[in-house]
Design brief:
Length: 214
Amino acid sequence: MNSNPDQTANIQAAIDRLARGDESAREELINCAWHRIMRLTRKILGDFPGVRRWEQTEDVFQKVLINLWKALEKVELTDARHFLRLAAEKIRFQLIDLARHYYGPQGHGANYRTQMSPGDSGDNHTRHAEQGRVSEDPSRLAQWAEVHVQVANLADPEREVFDLLWYHELSQEEAAGVIGVDVRTIKRRWRQAKLDLAQLLKNDSTPKEPLGEN
């Protein structure tokens, strides 16, 4: 997801108008977030293959937008930085809810086994599973959900960097501009976020999938 100064400036301008009582600015904020949220929803659904089986990307996208719209009716935004974090939070919560819903004890996924499609050999199925592209194991989905649950337990500076780099795919330079710090600070917080998250997951005593680099 590529950010640019003009887009961030547009978000900030809409926030300023909303603060002055211009209700049309709320719709403009949703429009500003449209491409960001769609791309991010597709990215995160790639981490939840079991959820993707039951939910279309567009369906999840619409739910996220509805939740974001409702939040904008209640939350007094301060700046573009605040808005980006709010959007990341809504997407994270939506995916966690879906994972728990579909792979809980009575969920569809927990009680459903997909037949291999014609022409898909057992070797291909195994290879895809090893690459994280296919999963029939409810525990794996639960593990991925737990990764995103534990993000909320990071210290705020590290969680903010995680939101911007991982959820919104901003570069470290872009994140530094949004937060108002130097790139070295972003690098330090990003490194600390990954270390702290690994420790949180270890303390949870359940093996988890590793996070990719940014």
